Amino acid sequence: MSRNIRVIGIVMLAMFLALFGSSTYIQVFQEPQLVSDGRNTRTLLQSYEVQRGPILVDGTPIAFSEEDGSSYMFQRTYTDGELYAPITGYYSANQGATQLEEAMNAELSGQSDAQFFTSLRALFTGEEPAGAAIETTIDPAAQQAAWDALDGRPGAVFAFDPETGAILAMASTPSFDPNDLAMHDDATVIDNYNALLNDPSQPLYNRAIAGNLNPPGSVFKVVVAAAALEAGLVEPDTELENPEEWTLPGSTATIYNPNHGEACGPDETTTLSYALQMSCNIPFAQLAVELGDDAIREMAEAFGFNSSVSIPMESTPSTYPTTTLDDAQTALTGFGQFDVRVTPLQMAMVSGAIANGGELIEPTLVEQVLTPSLQVLQGPQVESLGNVISDETATELAAMMQSSVDSGVASNAQIAGVDVAGKTGTAENGEGEPYSLWFTGFAELDDQQVAVAVVLEDGGGMGQSGTGNGLAATIGQQVIKAVLEL
What we know:
Layout: H1 2-29, H2 31-36, H3 41-47, E1 55-57, E2 60-67, E3 74-78, H4 81-88, E4 91-92, E5 96-97, H5 99-103, H6 105-108, H7 116-125, E6 133-136, H8 140-150, E7 155-160, E8 167-173, H9 179-182, H10 186-197, H11 221-230, E9 239-241, E10 245-247, E11 254-256, E12 269-271, H12 272-277, H13 281-291, H14 293-303, H15 327-333, H16 344-355, E13 359-361, E14 366-370, E15 376-378, E16 384-387, H17 391-407, E17 421-427, E18 436-445, E19 448-456, H18 468-483
Helix pairs in contact: 8-18, 11-13, 11-14, 11-17, 13-15
C-alpha cells in the first residue's frame, strides 16, 4: 500500500511540476510574444479600455480619443491628419503604431512608470483610466508654412531651435490621413494600408527623418569646410587652385563647377569663402582629397552622421562611407556625392550647431507630458551633444553661409532686415535621373533662432532643370519667416 502511495505521490508531484513549469514559461517567457500577437484580441481590446491621451500643438489636440460606443470603447481621431501625420503617425487596431503614437505609447496609454501612482490612485477614487497628454514643440505657423511651400511635391522640411532643440516644423509630402488607419473596420483599414504601402509616391515615409535618403550635394560642403577649418588646413581667405575642370585622381573622370567649364571666379586662384558662397565643386573636391576621408568622416560623425537620433522617434542614420575610400571617391564626397546620404534632420543639425556657436543640441519633439489632472510628468529637456566645432570655426562658417545668401547662390533665402545664413545643393542621383534639391540655413531675430533644412526629391517636379536655390531655398525662406513671425 505504502509503495502505491509513493508512486501516486511521485506522479502527482511530476504533474504539479509540469503544470508549474509550463505556466511559468507561458507567463514569463512567452508573455511578450502573446501580448504582441495580432490574434490576441483580448490584449487589443484591453488597450482601448483606457482613453488614450491627446497629442497637442500649441495646446490644441491634433490627435485625441473619444468614446464611440463599440467594443473598442474609444475611437482615435486626427485633426489636420495629412499636415501632422509625420508627427502623430497613426494608432491602428491591426497595423500597429508609428511616429509619436509609437514612441510615446507608454505615456499616451497611461502605462509608463511615471504614471504608476496616478493609475493606482484611480483605482481608489473611481476615476476613469486615461493616458497622458503629449504637448509637442511644433510651431503651427511654421508647420503650415512648410506644408504649403512643399505644395505636395515629394520632399520634406525640418526646422528646430538650435539653442533649445525644440522642433518647430516637420513636414513630409506626399502625406496620408491617419484617420484612414484608425477606424475599427479591420477590412477597410487593411485595404487602406495596402493602398498606401503600394503607392509609388510612398506617403507613409517620413522624409524629414527617414525614408529613402538623398545625396546632399553641395550642402555637404559645409561639413567639409568645417573639417578643413578645424584641421587648420585653410582659413576663409586662403588661396586655392582654380581650374575650369579637374580630373579625379587615379581616374579618367572629369568634374566641373556648377557653371560647366567655368572657373570659380575670374581670378587664377579662389578662396574657401568664395567657393562656398558660389558653391564651386572643384575646390571642395581637392580639399577633400587633401583632408582625407578619415578626417571628413570624423567631422561628419561629430555632427551626427552614422548614428540615429531619438526625437523621440528614431531617425534613419545619415551616412558617410565607413569603408576606406580612394582619392577619387573621397573627392566626390567633397561636394556631397558618391555614397553620402542624408536626412533633412541631419542637415538642420549641421546648421544648428553652426548657429549655436559650435554646440549641437539634440532636437526634440516633446515639450512636456501631462497627466489628465495636469500633473507634469516630463518638462522641457535640453540635451547637449557637445561642442562639434570651435566658436571661431562656427563664426567663420556663419559668415560664409551668410555671404552665400546675400550675394551668392542661395539668394532666394534672403529676408529683408534679417541676416540669413544658408547653403543650397543640387545633388545628382545618376545619369538622366532627376536631381535632389536642398537648402539648409539659419537665422535669428529678437532672440528667436531657427535652423532649417529642406529637400525636394524628383527635382521638385522639374527633373534636371530644378535647382536648390530656385525651389528649396524659397521653401526654407518661407519657414524661417513663419518662425520669426515676419
